[in-house]
Amino acid sequence: TEATKVTPSVGAEQEYFLVDRQKYLQRKDLIFAGRTLFGAPAPKGQEMDDHYFGTIRERVGAYMKDINIELWKLGVSAKTQHNEAAPAQHELAPIYETANIAADHNQLVMETMKKVAGRHGLTCLLHEKPFAGVNGSGKHDNWSLCTDNGVNMLEPGDTPNENIQFLLVLACIMRAVDKHADLLRQSAANVGNDHRLGGNEAPPAIISIFLGEQLEDVVKQLVETGQATHLTEGGKLETGVSTLPDFEKDATDRNRTSPFAFTGNKFEFRSVGASDSIGSPNTTLNAIVAEAFCEAADILEAAEDFEQAVHDLIKKYMTEHQRIIFNGNGYSQEWVEEAARRGLPNISSMVGTIETLTTEKSIALFEKFHIFTKAELEARKEVLYDTFSKTINIEALTMIDMTRKQILPAVVKYTKSLADTVIAVRDAGADATVQTELLKEVSEKLAETKAALNRLEEAEAVAKTMKCPKDLAFFYNDTVKVAMEALRAPVDKLEMLVAKEIWPMPSYGDLLFEV
């Protein structure tokens, strides 16, 4: 080969929400936490599938045009933009570039999105789950490897079963992802992503590789016989209309339930959160693949028969690590059970991933390539625990503040209005059954809200006495977050009962459909 260098190439698709700025300023949860901590579902969500790739609203289109101009001025090659699945959700995709530059440019993209939104009377939300009940926002990290003479090492060609270089690279990636699945999961973990991963809208917390039917069949042949002698064709997509041609069907197809999917000539790491830097995921991905390449190179360079050694190594790696391949529905309970049988890690929360940074395996990996020392990994671990605790603490205090200062006073005001109405109707000699039932229902939910508020405040008081960063983070995850959900439930019910003119903040319908 004439190549002397291999560089990772990355393109990060950035998802985001846009809301009207005046409505945003009326939501303390959006201001302090970046997501809604309360909110009953709007009558309509994304169930009609009419927002994804739909017509872009004029105001949003003007914002997107402005974004492109600003990014081009900064040297960021913004390429496409479109509506995403949820109402008020959108996406920007850049032209792919070397990983280091792509990471810097994605930081500029996020910063510019927020800055430009204000000019249009909008606010850009990058939180992974700003609204419950509709899709959250991710950042699909499209990753490939390119040589300095322009060859994409993840290009399978017309006959991937005969492309030895591609098969060796694929085998090494399978080994890397299987060996370090826990670390790769950690690289995409943050507080907001806990609300998104595994939620039937984003990849599960279980790391697996999707290859598509064609490549999975190639791997199966190599594992079973040591040779891949035939190739599954993509087939045709029949339109059923005589005046229209049939279309060639992509042999790799798509699987949006997979966290790490092969998509033609690249892998798409879909677990990354919208607000996160892509630095950590790509550092980890590059490191684990470099380790696998290094191990393969040591074996092949010492081989007497290079050609035979390559074939043997491909078969060995694919056989040992075929458990990491899964082409099915990642959202299903069956996959959770199957992954457990395969021994794949299923780490559902950010706090559960943090310890993977300082395992012997992880320390050896990062020190081998002079990325992080053990001390630096220990420091990062402490920072992550601290960040998690502080983030949940801010959310909990925001809920307490909103409940005490906005929600309880509004509901008390409404109950007084109902009580006055009941008295007036009875004095007029009419039947006040409906008004009385409504008053009782609101009063019951008000009492539930106050009790849940008390429990959250008690949990916060306990948290303030804890000193160990790890214990504190797990307490916030296992106890405080549960208390927060328990407070949200009756408040969201109250929102559906209290008159709109009395409810103290914009609803989901206002935020998502009035942009």
Features:
single chain; 515 residues; alpha+beta; Creatine Kinase, Chain A, domain 2; Four Helix Bundle (Hemerythrin (Met), subunit A); 3 domains; two-stranded antiparallel ribbon; 16 helices; elongated
Describe the 3D structure:
Helix 13 packs antiparallel against helix 14. The radius of gyration is 26 Å and the shape is elongated. The mean pLDDT is 94. It has 16 helices and eleven strands. A hairpin with a 5-residue loop joins strand 2 (78-83) and strand 3. Helices cover 51% and strands 10% of the residues. It starts with 5 loop residues before the first strand and ends with a helix. Strands 1, 2, 3, 4, 5, 6, 7, 10 and 11 form a nine-stranded mixed β-sheet that branches. It has helices at 21-24, 28-33, 58-73, 99-119, 164-179, 181-187, 212-225, 279-301, 306-320, 333-342, 350-353, 360-368, 374-427, 433-463, 469-497, 508-513, and strands at 6-20, 78-83, 89-94, 97-98, 122-125, 139-147, 209-210, 236-237, 247-248, 260-262, 267-269. The longest helix is centred in the last third of the chain and has 54 residues, at 374-427. It folds into three domains: 8-137, Glutamine synthetase/guanido kinase, catalytic domain (Creatine Kinase, Chain A, domain 2, 2-Layer Sandwich), CATH 3.30.590.10; 140-235 and 245-372, no CATH class; 388-513, Four Helix Bundle (Hemerythrin (Met), subunit A) (Up-down Bundle), CATH 1.20.120. The chain is of the alpha+beta class and 515 residues long.
